[in-house]
## 1
Amino acid sequence: MSASASRLSPLLLVYDLKLVCTQCCVKEQEITYRLKSVQHKCGHNVLLCKAKGGIKWRPVSRRPIFPNPNKYMACWYYVEGRGCTQHKNRCTFARSDEEAAVWTFEKHQGLDHALLCNLIAESERGTCQANIDEPLGDLLADVDLKAVCNLCSVKVNEITYNVQSVVHKCRRSLLLAKGKASDLWKLVSKRPTLAQTVCYKVCKYIAEDSRCTQHTQGRGCTYAKTLEEATVWNYLREKKMDKNELIRLLTQSVSLTPEHAAESMLRHFSGEFIEVCKDCFQEHPQKLTTKRWNDFCAADIAHAWNPVLVYHLSENSRKHVYSQVRPLPPNCQFTYCSYVIQGKPCWHTASECQSAQSEVEMAVWKAEHTGLCVRRHLLQLSQPAQTQPRKVTMYCKVCHLSLSSPESFYKHCASLEHAQLVAQDTTTRWRGREVPHNRRAELWLCERCECE
């Protein structure tokens, strides 16, 4: 069994997974697919899942970044063909039990949608065995290695790190290793060379995920902290090389350019990047307008063209997400907006909120932080997907709906569904205990509230 199949085995014991495209599958309903046999070069751009013994293949979309529960569940209010009847286009629950199971597996394994699809493709090809004849092949047969930096890794504790998928120009200042049967990345520090060590071993006194408790509180310990670190150190001693040389050999074939970064970002995010008028997009209500043949906006009242980069994701015929990709703010802390973390749209203006308002905006910011100018390439690579000229439309960011005219937009804003979603974002729910009955007489509104 290949390493990819071994890692997927807990999921494959219960479900069947299949990478398909529009040529080798038939979409019968919104979340019901069936396979068809056809000779073609598959694009592998749709992930399907079905329970063992089942007959219905269910699509698996990208897992939402917020919220992040320990276990995902299927939406109780989802009706095939109508979507979620309670939260409408704002629903963050899975559309099926199969999708919920895959999302939960991704979370527990530290995977995203792109990495999961890569593992499935590798398990089908069976080509993830290390080649001993290649450089570092004998080491890579025992452990997996990854050179990272503080942007593409998250420190869990003294020893363990999580690796996150992000497009950026990596400085590769850290070396991580994990065993073939493990899912945890361990830090590999600089090999101690003062002692004439014949074979490096793991320290007996090291506490779990911390420093050595015996040898001068860890500062004088020359033992390895983990088995992965001992394996790498012994390889370096045998080959008479240092850690920097190992990192160079590990990444010598990797040359990340802005073009490659943009291509990787478009593979990771399934939507497209477009350019719209900034003034219209920041109006109330929001409008999606493109450029005329001259330097003017295509709005009814033409004005000077002032472009802004926008990411467009269309999950179905009803739901459209348009999110602005703002310029990288100075001294960016690379945090998400508190409203967005709660699954709500940010109600601040674009210049007021200094936190990322979408996963895409965060990825572009991190790429630009490392000196990669990807915006122009994102637009160029998205142009082939734009087969028809865009019309001026109105956009409701609360309900993720695009409407063709001002009349339809104002009619939508007067609907009960829109009012309910707006109320969820603007009202504050009392989370404390109820006021005691014998103290309620002492409470009253302030004078300003009574005047209003």
## 2
Amino acid sequence: MSETLGNKINRQEVIDNALNHTIMSWSKQKGIEPFAIERAEGVYLYDFNGQKIIDFSSGLMNSNIGYGNQRVTDAVVKQMQQVAFISPACVSKVRGDLGKKLAEICPGDLNRAFFTLCGASAIENAVKLARLYTGRHKIFTRYQSYHSATIGAISAGGDPRKFPVDSQQAPNFIHFDLPVAYRYEYGEENLLKDSIAALERQIEYEGPNNIAAILLEGESGTSGCLQYPKGYLKEVRKICDKYGILLIMDEVMSGFGRTGKWFGFQNHDIIPDMICMAKGLTCGYLPLGCVMVSEKIAQKYDDTVLPLGLTYSAHSVCCSAALEVLKIYEEDHLIERASEMGKYIEEKIEEMKAIHPSIGEFRNTGLLGCLELVKNRKTKEPMAPFNAKPEEMVVMNQVAAKIKELGMYTFVRWGYIFIAPPLTITKEEVQEGLAIISEALKIADQAVI
């Protein structure tokens, strides 16, 4: 570490410049003390003060291949030396190569890639395309879901972050409820049939001929890794086929090995009509999103203008990063590793449950999981409720502060602690991270009644 960058004064200057001249996401703007990251490698971030921080949520569940992989750097540099930007009306070799590779990875006839800038723009364009293709206007989505932060995408989601953004919200997004097995009062054995019956009733009320698509996450993410009842997505696929409704899977977070499969929906043995992707597509090395579209949909526009477009669609440098990242997944066997390490974490969490009465449930698929903390295992009263008010977050804020103090970056929300490390993580690094969480859970244990 250089002397000019390593001292405390310069670290504070880095923080002050950021807080005084940039706007922080999902945060109050003053009175905060973020990590000031000088460099990152593997599963670790390094603060300017020399602190080593283990990242247990892969940034925002996107740094799947870990930090500092120079294979991506080399691929990006090489592409920039050839051509960085060209109009999306032109084609580059890397654009076609990436599209072809994604077609090989995706199941069924999902062979056409429309490249976007991020997950939000993937969702926005999938929604537009669904409406264009079907001539219908309504989009069905789950209440407890998140589909990104642009005005349409945040309205599509059922996350309460949308309420202060726009109290009116974008029109024609219809939300439906999907109860969680952990608290379903009629028993898990009834959850599937009750949920499907409720969804089909709501479709009938809204008019099937008005519904363009059902949009669902491949696996639930920031809402709490809320798992689908077994067989649920298969039944939804049948409903879509019955009424001519498109099925769009949001794989922005759950895609690219995160759940132990290329895509989260592959854990449920279905094939959607469109896939929205981003995050793990480039693992944060550069911004890129994509909507994979079935041949059936794409062929409608063989001789008709498709009214979608973005200045930076299929940006050559971003495509080169994605192509190299896909190669790394395969060469380093990271998808298989996610499944293996996910099982290992599940074993370790079971051991932690015997020590920490505040652990209510651990919901996990591959390396996309979260602990739900409770005040009482019998009543399942959450340590902090859904959309908790500040006064209801006292204990969880203390837990989050302890996690940070002990040198971990991870996503803590309401009563949830997320465990979604890079797919490169080792057993030793898992143990290191869980030891930090275990120490922080002692605070939550004191609140158990």
## 3
Amino acid sequence: MARRVALVTGGTGGIGTAICRELTRQGCLVIANYLPELEQEARAWQKQQLAEGVEVEIEPGDVSSFEGARGMVEAVQTRIGPVDILVNCAGITQDKTLRKMTEQQWRDVLSTNLDSVFNVTRHVIEGMIERGFGRVVNISSVNGQKGQFGQCNYASAKAGIHGFSMSLAQEVATKGVTVNSVSPGYVSTAMTLAMPEEVRDAIVAQVPMGRMGTPEEVAYVVGFLCDTRAEYITGANIPVNGGLYMS
């Protein structure tokens, strides 16, 4: 059987990297998407993965743009093949209390974190339906479930991902396509490690497990949902948060 083609948006980030590596380990042909202006960094990232024995393709594209996402998907399909697995992992934060948040900060976070999910999925879902197989996994957040001070934009986008996933799951449930979301809690990445130590300590103090998660722990759940044996799981949200939020 031909290798499954997996596209990971924001694939060169902390969690994205772990997802790319996990799906490669499962035998998928993986493409990591990155912002066009970060070409140099993406090539260095690809070289680093290869040095560690992980072969990953890369493809530029601004997924916050509908046309940018279409161009990126078309380039992947032309160069590599139809997308069987899509992991929407692209995301940014621009934290401010609502009283201080600018319209631009709202729009930037919503377009990168939520619009991108529509933009990319819209261009691969038809092919998945036609071929009778597809896996869509959307990376949400614990803060999309419980909210977070200073994150009206981010929490709104991540909560929107849940609604998107459950709705699309119903549309394609009989077509061999599953759609699920994964909601990480606080994960040890370059972004969280850049926080002041006292901030990190305060976060960890709230987590019942007493530590941050690892990107690999999130990636494992994504890989599980992408497996052919997980075909009866759809419209679900899997929390990976160390017990920080239980529902």
## 4
Amino acid sequence: MQVRDFMITNVFTVKPSNTVKDLLDILNSNRIGGVPVVDDQRHLVGMVSDGDILRYLAPKPPGIAGLVYVIEDGEMEDILPEKLDTPVKEIMTKRNILSVLPDQEFEETIRILSRHHFKKLPVVNRAGRVIGVLSRGDIINNIFRKLG
């Protein structure tokens, strides 16, 4: 079996210039937890997830840094609109982005997902353009369907 047998081809993506608000809208309306970040030619430039959003929006820990945060930024309700206007490029994962090709072996993909604890893995063509995505849930569902 190859990646193309399991990948989702209806891929939602964002651009680095999209805002966190745009990203939240895409994740919420499509009931997904993350998306590839692509440039204008659909080349993969990063990944962003609901976890990245939570880490970005989370208040700073107590201590001197936390006091500065509270003094400078105020309450969460006051700073939320400003944070929602932040470009995705500020919170996305940019380094060590792994992807797979559609003709790669499925077993290799499972090893990558499990070894790195990824929830999603972008599928790119030989030109580096995003053409699909694999998620842990989609893989489990497809394995179950093929068995049953």
